[in-house]
Every structure is written in structure tokens, then in C-alpha cells.
Amino acid sequence: MNILLWHVHGSWTTAFVQGPHTYVVPVTPDRGPDGLGRARTFAWPASVREATPGELREIPFDLVVLQRPHELRLAEHWLGGRRPGRDVPAVYLEHNAPDGAVPETRHPFADRSDLTLVHVTHFNRLFWDCGSTRTEVIEHGIVDPGHRYTGRLERAAVVVNEPLRRGRCTGTDLLPALAAAVPLDVFGMGTDSLAGQLGLPPERCRTADLPQRELHAAMAERRMYLHPVRWTSLGLSLLEAMHLGLPVLALAATEVVEAVPEGSGTVSNRPDVLALAARRYLADPGAAAADGARARQAALERYGLKRFLDDWERLITEVCS
After folding, report:
1. pLDDT digit string (tens) for 140-159?
2. How far apart are CA 99 and CA 85, in angstroms?
């Protein structure tokens, strides 16, 4: 099958394109948000092809995977009038939890009969009001980076993009108190001025923006993974940390309480409890390694790549038949 999708979420797409199809991603001269093309920092197979808007008109597609509301009109324009859901089977993949007045948030694709709306977590499906639109949940899958944990550095890894802009959503305000318990290494885009903005000395909060191939190696050297996020969908960096074998310290928010089972770390809505757990891992590397091994096993069982691809194959077959 030929599947059209935009390069929106690099980590999720990396798992999705491991399937048996041809995946076409739009590319534009500026490689802007609507035409990023192939990933440059993720390993994608040769079955992922780039195509310009002009080339898309000539390609017979079997499925369109929409991920942002404006892609519906964009796809119809770039496909020469073929409308997803009418002329080409379509699904809408929702990566995010709702914003705003959350219990009442209507999904932009609510009350539609021409496509299936796919959520990445059960929490997201519960909190979005999708009306009569058919919904499915296909939980994340991870390309296994291997059990690479050493924990040799007595620091906590945090992975977040734009922590200053996103503020309370990503728990940025919690970092100073947590940094008093364990030194932090914060990886991601827009982190370069984080320590200064939070008033933290460099030794308590270091930052870096690394490509994926370097990020996993760096995470695995840290003693633990810290996930202070209040409100977002389930972070793939959390699942990647578990696959690597890191023990987890996380707020008990959104889908985390289901993703991180007992014995894999500490999940709590009390930052002081997370700080106490961090100090324990610093003092007891064996306990950190043991919890990390259990975290890896749990992640492989629930968020393994085969289960993810099998779930998508089932839905693709159903939608395209």
C-alpha cells in the first residue's frame, strides 16, 4: 500500500514506518512544517519516500494518515482534488491530550462518518469529546534501542522540548526543587538558557540538544529518568527511557499511572516523594538498576514494536477494505 502522512512527530513516525508499506512524506523547498520530508536524526527505512506537492498528484494512495486539522484541506489540494475520507480512505491520528476546558473539549474531527479517529492513549480518548466519530486506541510502539543502562552518572535525565515556553505543562517550575535532590541533565530543543532562567547553578542543571542516536546513549548513562510533566500525552521519551533500562520518577498524571507499573520506579503527585526516591537511587545503584530492568520488561510487553505494528495492520486492513 501507498500511505501518505506528514512528518509531524519523529519518534512516533519512526515506529510507524517500520511496517510493510510504502510511506510517502511531503517535502517542500523550505522543509517547513508541512514539508519536512524524511527525518535527518532518526533511522527510517528506504520504504519512506519523499514527494513534492506536484508529485503527490500522480501517486495512487491507499490511505491518508492525518495528524493536524489543516491537513484535510491541504491533502485535498495537493492530491488534485482527492478528498481524504471520500476519495481515499483516511484516519486521523491524535497525538495530544485536549487543552483548554478539558472535560468539555470537542475534537476538531468530532461527529464525522468519513474517517476513524485514532488516539495514542486511553486517557486521550476518555478526555476528548469526539461525538459520533468512530474512535480507536493504538498505544505507542517503540523501536527497541536495547538494554543500554549503566547509570554511572549520578544525575537524572529529563527530555523535554521548549521547557520555558511550555512552563507548567511540562513541570518546568518543579525542576529547581528536584534539582536540589538530584543533579539534572535536560535534553531537548530550547533548553540552552534553562538553568539561568530557573536560577540554577550549572552543576545542578546541564542542558543539551542531541540527535536521537546520541540521546539514547546519553540517557542510559544517567542514574534515573525524571518525568515531571503535568499535562501532555504520554511522552515517547519516557517509554524510550524504560526500554533503555532506566528507572522512572514521574508525576502520576495523564497515562503515566498505567505506563509505569509498580516496581519500575516511583509515580506520585508529590514532588517531595519523587525527590526522596531520587536520593535513594543515588545512594543505591543496585536498586536503580533493578527497577530499571523491570521498567524495560514492562515497556517491552506493553509498548513493543510488533504489537504496535500488528494493531495498525488490523486497522489499516479494516479501513481500506
Report:
1. 999 999 999 999 999 999 99
2. 26
